[in-house]
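Late entry, written up from scratch paper. The run itself happened at the end of the previous shift, but nothing got recorded in the book at the time, so transcribing now.
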Amino acid sequence: MDIFANRSKSWDMKSRRVQGAKRIATAIADRIDLSREMSIADFGAGTGLLSLFLSDRVGRITAIDNSPSMLEVLRDKIGEFNCPIEILNMDITKSKIDDLKFDGIVSSMTLHHIDDIPNIFRLFYKMLDRDGFIAIADLDMEDGTFHSDNSGVFHFGFERDYLNRISQEVGFKVINFETVNRINKANGEFPIFLMTAFK
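Output as recorded:
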């Protein structure tokens, strides 16, 4: 079921989302030595906002998402990207990923929609080439009020120590967290962290 079907067309119309993606992309570029030789994956790419802001810094992007409607919006603006982009409509937790190898995996505001966190980190590790990186932005632990509708939400944000422990157990190293954005809503301010780590 595509939980974003009713929201995909208007997704990019919120300047808060666009500016948030831009801030996250800038933070990733500040912390990771990106190059035009790199092939990266954008996990939970959605309409491609994060990918778009990284497309002038890497050689190739594979946009992965299980929402056909979000990826349709991405396809409509594919000419705006500054590098080749491949679109994969798939759920990596249910698909064969042996042929997917990347120099890095980026992700923005997707992790809290994933039920099994240890498993997704294991899959990320498997998908990375030697010395590859992850750069994941998501919510710090919140009270469940960030979304007006929590359908498809498995985690009300995360404790950073928990993600640090899980990623270490998988094998990641040089793990860092930093607050890179804050989303202000009527019901409060929600910090967004960027987690980076290396294989």
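Strands lie at 39-43, 60-65, 85-89, 102-108, 128-139, 173-185, 188-198.
(Scratch paper discarded after transcription.)
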